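In the design runs reported in the main text, the only information available to the sequence generator was the tokenized backbone. The following block is the verbatim input for one such run; it is reproduced so that readers can re-run the procedure and compare outputs position by position.
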């Protein structure tokens, strides 16, 4: 099996009022190229921490383990190097950037990644043509491009904007950290369509969610159950349906 993302024995902690607080406790996970995997788990199991560690957030300290991404040592790379290599993180709660124009932000990010990959940058005309096609696909008003990043956006607009960024950056590996949180059914379908439209032999994704309903639209290849900082069970899409019906108790008892 071609393991595009291979996480081995990953341990990570965060500073908690001057004391180390372990969160990831020997996590193992393998995601082959071309597959979409999902992680579900109770609150506090470390799901968001995993997404932050993979993206390179610096307030989380990796204390053990390794992460190989497309043949590279992901943990040795800076956040911008990870982005250039093709890693993308969609946040659960996208931050607002007052004073930063949405279109300018997108064009700067896209061209930074293109430069790092040795590709030609997009001029203003080519960028606007591309981004307007994407906003139409995502049922977004072009007016959102003129606004500051996420400032005054509704929850659904923020998530659409995250998917727009993902579509424009065309990552090799996308991490969606509870992107479906707080979405109505129409916005949920937009998020799922954004992931599904990128699916192919050179794209993989890790979808972190509490709800089986998103997975009805994305239909992951594998579903993993996470608790206490590690993966305790893995299976097919039926795992999500079992969790929806029965909860986590069976898996938590088996892993105790």
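Verbatim output:
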């Amino acid at each position: 099996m071609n393991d595009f993302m291979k996480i081995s024995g990953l341990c990570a902690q965060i500073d908690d009022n001057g004391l180390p607080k372990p969160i990831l406790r020997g996590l193992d996970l393998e995601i082959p190229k071309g597959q979409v995997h999902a992680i579900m788990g109770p609150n506090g199991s470390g799901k968001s921490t995993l997404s932050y560690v993979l993206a390179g957030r610096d307030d989380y300290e990796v204390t053990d383990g390794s992460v190989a991404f497309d043949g590279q040592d992901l943990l040795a790379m800076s956040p911008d190097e990870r982005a250039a290599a093709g890693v993308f993180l969609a946040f659960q709660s996208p931050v607002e950037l007052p004073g930063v124009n949405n279109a300018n932000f997108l064009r700067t990010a896209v061209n930074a990644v293109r430069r790092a990959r040795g590709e030609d940058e997009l001029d203003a005309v080519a960028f606007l043509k591309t981004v307007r096609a994407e906003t139409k696909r995502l049922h977004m008003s072009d007016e959102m491009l003129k606004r500051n990043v996420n400032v005054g956006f509704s929850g659904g607009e923020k998530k659409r904007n995250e998917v727009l960024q993902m579509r424009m950056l065309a990552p090799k590996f996308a991490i969606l950290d509870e992107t479906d949180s707080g979405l109505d059914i129409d916005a949920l379908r937009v998020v799922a369509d954004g992931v599904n439209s990128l699916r192919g032999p050179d794209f993989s994704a890790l979808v972190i969610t509490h709800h089986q309903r998103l997975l009805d639209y994305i239909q992951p290849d594998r579903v993993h159950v996470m608790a206490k900082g590690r993966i305790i069970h893995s299976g097919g899409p039926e795992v999500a349906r079992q969790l929806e019906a029965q909860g986590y108790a069976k898996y938590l008892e088996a892993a105790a």
